[in-house]
Amino acid sequence: MTNPVLAEVVRSGFVESVHRGALVVTGPEGDARLALGDVVSPVYPRSSNKPLQAVGMLRAGLDFAGEDLALACASHSGEPRHVKHVLELLQAAGLREDDLACPPDFPLHVPSMRDAAEPRRVMMNCSGKHTAMLTTCVRAGWPTSGYESPDNPLQRALAAAVAELTGEPIAHTGVDGCGAPLFAFSLTGLARAFGRIARGVDAEAEAVASAMRAHPWLVAGTGREDTELMSAVDGLIAKGGAEGVQAFALPDGFAVAIKIDDGNKRACAPLAVEALRYLGVDVSGLDALAHGSVLGGGRPVGEVRVPELR
Q1: For residues 178 and 161, what is the distance between their CA atoms, to the nearest angstrom?
Q2: Is residue 115 part of a domain?
Q3: Which InterPro entries match (predicted)?
Q4: DSSP string of the chain?
């Protein structure tokens, strides 16, 4: 299937680029209510997997809640408060920064990146998830060495949780950018899982949803799209991923998953706003995300234009 054009990049009234992709809206029971493009073939959801993995960690014995649990779901910006919190969680579990399997990196937050003397593992955007994975192993009595291996009991438990939440088997297991296992499944499965978490289908799902809603800044950071979306829309849980992935869900269980074919994320925010509008959400506070930003000479000269969803 050739996926449809989901976004046009318009500069000075001229369509400069287009982005093809797929988008699905699922209802509270996980059924597809709107499908654009191929929403049934497996994709790598990248960091949109994190809330699903967090549910699995709670089921395996992780005792995080609130801010700690929000950070476990995060692709954080590496701002000082993010880094401090990760270090505190490691210390509380008797762990060290070198125990993290995620690679050293600079913060995503540009001012924090400029202040960093060198890349560190705790600055890497997935360090909260990795700290939660290590802590889960400590709580469950599983080996922390090699916790990122698909054969580790932790990763087997997380795979089972992901399959249960998505309602479909994992199609492929790869290696994510942070070094942890990455599970492939359909966009419909991703949206279905987000809807289940947002509805709080069990205590663990409810805990993850509550943590993300209460602490949207910890899930991403200053000026980041997930933080902006959750801050503007009551009850929303949202988590993007690399290579043009975005997923979110409302408390009633309606959910959306998006994958841009070429991996460019600039279409995700405008599509997310349009999908929220389709679901009847007031998006008046999301104008900045709704149109993207196409600059010429340092000033806006265009926008990222997406179709009205019907």
Answers
A1: 20
A2: yes
A3: Asparaginase_II
A4: -PPPEEEEEEETTEEEEEEEEEEEEE-TTS-EEEEES--SSEE--GGGGHHHHHHHHHHTT----HHHHHHHT------HHHHHHHHHHHHHTT--GGG--SPPB--SSHHHHHH-SS-BGGGSTTHHHHHHHHHHHHHHT--STTTTSTTSHHHHHHHHHHHHHHTS---EEEE-TTSSEEEEEEHHHHHHHHHHHHHT-SHHHHHHHHHHHH-HHHHS-TT-HHHHHHHHSTT-EEEEETTTEEEEE-TTS-EEEEEETT--GGGHHHHHHHHHHHTT---GGGHHHHS--EEETTEEEEEEE-PPP-
Please indicate, yes or no, if residue 275 is contained in any of the structural domains: no
| Dist. CA 121–CA 98, nearest whole Å | 8
Give the number of residues written for the chain. 310
List beta partners, residue 257: 24, 247
Range 192-208 average pLDDT = 98
Per-residue pLDDT tens for 234-273? 999 999 999 999 999 999 999 999 999 999 999 999 999 9
How many domains, the chain?
1
Structure confidence by residue, pLDDT tens digits, 18-72: 999 999 999 999 999 999 999 999 999 999 999 999 999 999 999 999 999 999 9
pLDDT digits (tens, 9 = 90+) for 10-28: 999 999 999 999 999 999 9
Rounded CA gap, 122 and 145, in Å? 17
In the block, which residue shows the tokens 């998505």?
Answer: 166
The reply to whether the predicted model has a pTM over 0.90 is: yes
Domain that holds residue 169: 43-263+280-292
